[in-house]
Amino acid sequence: MRVLVTGGAGFIGSNLVDRLLADGHEVGVVDDLSSGSRRNLAGAEGDPRFSLHEMDILDPALAGLAADFRPEVVCHLAAQISVRKSVADPVRDARLNVEGTAAVLSAACRGGTRKVVFASSVAVYGRPTVIPVPGDAATDPRSPYAASKLSAEVYLAAFKALHGIDYTTLVLSNVYGPRQSPEGEAGVVAIFTDALLNGAPTVVYGDGTQTRDYVYVDDVVDGFARACGEAGGGGRFNLGTGVQTTDRELHTLVATAAGAADEPGSAPARLGDLPAMAVDPAPAAEALGWRPRTDLATGLKRTVEWAMTRSAARQG
Ligand SMILES: NC(=O)c1ccc[n+]([C@@H]2O[C@H](COP(=O)([O-])OP(=O)(O)OC[C@H]3O[C@@H](n4cnc5c(N)ncnc54)[C@H](O)[C@@H]3O)[C@@H](O)[C@H]2O)c1
């Protein structure tokens, strides 16, 4: 099938592009390269079934592109992804994540698209009282980013009601793996990996007992690939492991994978940080046949190996 991936030059998007091409699909990418890069698409470029369109999703030309490309499925990952940036500039966050999603949905209609698969975030759950968070848990957005992701989810439902365009929302926990940038605030695996391989100091905030649910990028991409079919239409599914890992445990695991000393510095807890998070993947297993297959130690080993290869290539 023909699939359009917005944000396809980014961390998750580019891994998805590789998977879709390997599955035999034709793949178009729309990305303004604001945080993604062509380097992430090195494996795809040159493949006659692949095309990159360097374009903002808010560019009015997007609808024409979709009308020409006629994607059967649109995987919508392009977004402003930083909670902190959303707090500093909520209007820009809404423009990219809400207006941007409306633009992608309108373009999908022009392109005769059957289904849109959307990347939402566990941020929509706010401060959950039950962990792992069940698939039908109430949403409670507590940042402009969470509000914009939830608004985008509502737009998917509205477009289905209005135009009959199907959708699946995938609610992603903390995704990690090759191509994640250490520049962002959320990619703690990438941040630890980069620092530990370069002999730079690392910091664990608070008492190190804060937990997150780390899910490997290949598993997340498998969820997207499954959602591109008929399964899961009109539904939203958590993509996480249900397992909580503390910040301190994560540091030990990354240090082990990197062959580095497990001696993080400490700093006061950051205001507003969630004490705990993990999500229940059972509904995704039932609806999509999805389950996380990569345990954390294996995923971290692959991530560290990739980071070492990348830094060797840069030095070489
Ligand atoms: N990484 C995670 O742990 C995580 C967790 C929950 C949700 N998500 C969601 O998954 C999606 C992908 O995240 P990621 O971690 O790969 O981030 P990323 O920054 O690597 O990828 C986002 C991509 O979107 C592109 N982009 C941004 N604004 C654009 C615009 N206006 N027009 C066109 N392209 C634009 C960027 O250049 C980049 O390539 C996002 O929607 C994010 O909110 C990620």
UniProtKB/TrEMBL annotation:
InterPro entries given for it?
A: Epimerase_deHydtase, Lipid_A_modif_metabolic_enz, NAD(P)-bd_dom_sf
- The chain positions of domain NAD-dependent epimerase/dehydratase read 3-240
Name a Pfam family for this protein: Epimerase
* SUPFAM superfamilies attached to this UniProt entry: NAD(P)-binding Rossmann-fold domains
PANTHER family annotated for this entry?
Answer: BIFUNCTIONAL POLYMYXIN RESISTANCE PROTEIN ARNA (PTHR43245), UDP-D-APIOSE_UDP-D-XYLOSE SYNTHASE 2 (PTHR43245:SF13)
User: What protein name does the entry list?
Assistant: UDP-glucose 4-epimerase
Give the source species.
Answer: Planomonospora sphaerica
